[in-house]
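#data-curation
PF: Archiving a pair of folding outputs for the training set. Convention for this channel: one message per protein, sequence first, structure tokens after, nothing in between. First:
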Amino acid sequence: MTNVLTRAAAFLLLTVFSLPASWAAVASPRTNAPAATSNWSAQQRAMVTAAFEQHVALSYVQAGLTAAGLSLDVYRRALIGFYSLQQRGTVSSHAQVLSIIDFGRSSTQKRLWIIDLAKGKLLHHSLVAHGKNTGEEYAQSFSNREGSEMSSLGFYVTGATYQGKHGLSLKLNGVDAGYNTNALTRAVVVHGADYVSQQFIRQHGRLGRSQGCPALPVADAPAIIRTIKGGTVLFANGPASIAYRSAWLSLDPALLGFARSKGLLDRIS
């Protein structure tokens, strides 16, 4: 494993530092960095794309996400959205915690991952419930509609915590048009629930279900909520059978956000 990480890191660094000095020619006078990917040459775009893909693979291995059961494809999509959100100023560049829910997995499996991207570390891996009208063991139907009691797909930015009927809870701001923008008015929040447990799974063959909230095990909820509160990104991925097309999954904004966050533009200017 160490050799794999070393080789991947070396390749990434080689890719980053071999970017051409000609980038300075398309730099913005104020930021000394390319203002948009449309100003990049084909070679520049290809090199940043290669650096991004290497970063995806390397950080995936570093965080031990293969053993934790997170699909590389789902992780890549989450990172594209993460960097797109940063690039457009929807989340702070200092918010380096990424939460991923994969509703394509059985509710009997741990399908929530909390990752510290700055440290390349998996912080939490947990069970998480879906809405009662979303499905039984598997999530199959999703909605942004009030009263649907379904889960909603897409990208969220976490908000403030509060004390509710489930104890410490966390507000979610849905930022994916057409998919989850009613999260606040629907009171779709992160909270603990006693039906999210291995005991419930043993008794019923599936996890308990919420009214659309990503509910967590009672014992784990406070620590997870404190980790992800206050402006971090959460991505809820759906099963392959569900059509999901998000503006946040556009690669170009993600490439620019990635290049800026890693200081590539400053190094090559």
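PF: Second:
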Amino acid sequence: MSIKKTDWKLFQPVFPVDFVKKRLVKIIMFCLICLMAGGSSPAIGQSGRGQLPESKKKKPERPRLPDPLPKVRMPEQIPQPSDDTIRINSDLVTIVATIMSSIQIGKIELEREDFEILEDGVPQEISNFARDRDLPINLVMLFDSSLSVAQKIAFERRAAAKFFERVLRPEDRAALFAVSTDVAVLQDFTGNTKSLVNATKQLKAKGATSLYDAVFLASDYLNATEGRRVIVIVSDGGDTTSNKGLLEALARAQQSDAIVFSVYTGNLNYSQNLRDLAGERALETLANETGGDVIRPSVTPGTQGDEADEQSLRELDLAFVSLAERLRTQFTLGYFSSNDKRDGSFRKLVVRVKKQGLSARTRTGYYAPKS
């Protein structure tokens, strides 16, 4: 089959060749421009062009602070043994001895020769001796006002009032600290019993218990005073939020020559499951190591009604009278240690009374000066 020349015209393009070339050039140019624009977009993004202005960007939301703001408790520095353990500017070691009697005797009269002091088992020569019955007492009462004693706080107020009335003399001074999560001074040193009793009315049960912090702070508080130094704790002995530990608090009390007495208000039920034994032991440790004592009413306060509380208050009244007598039968002994090392070490003390039926309650040791 052959094709005629006239039929060949049917296969020729409809558009002129020049027109097609121009259209192809335009299409190619358009594609090249698109490719170039697409490839340059990262560079545009990196240079910052084409982005939203800073003022129109969505800023991240800041977290809201709690209301009210929480209290921040900054830990104190760990106490180090220092020359605070000695009241005089020399290396004289002083000991306050409370005389205990196992027999009925009249007025206790003792002389220097009636005492013996052992430091780490080595006898020491007593160089200073004084009767303390006429020296003023500086006393800090630590009143547990945490939620753990909420049902006993009315009883504790009355017990504190009894204590101030029975123990303080006109020449003595006392301060009142409220002990909960934080430690607050409700009444600075004063000899006015009425002011101290009124201060107890400000006490309200709240928060946890920072008892060891309170002992630590009370010891520092007493360091600026002259005379005998006493800390009285009215508490069940529990501690939950202190920055200080028991041993740190005890060391500070020993360094300030403070004697610690406690009025125990915890559960006296014989079942150990219902007693805070750790709290009891803590109060006993603070008392025994500083020459003090723990006073316990026979009935747990605030748990068995008004009649039981009245009985407990009568017991405490008698105990406070006895305590006041003991504070009047104190002697101060002083000696220069035969151990002349200034190493800051803890040295054990034993004080003996040579008269039959009498014994001395003192702190168990002291921290040597440190060079």
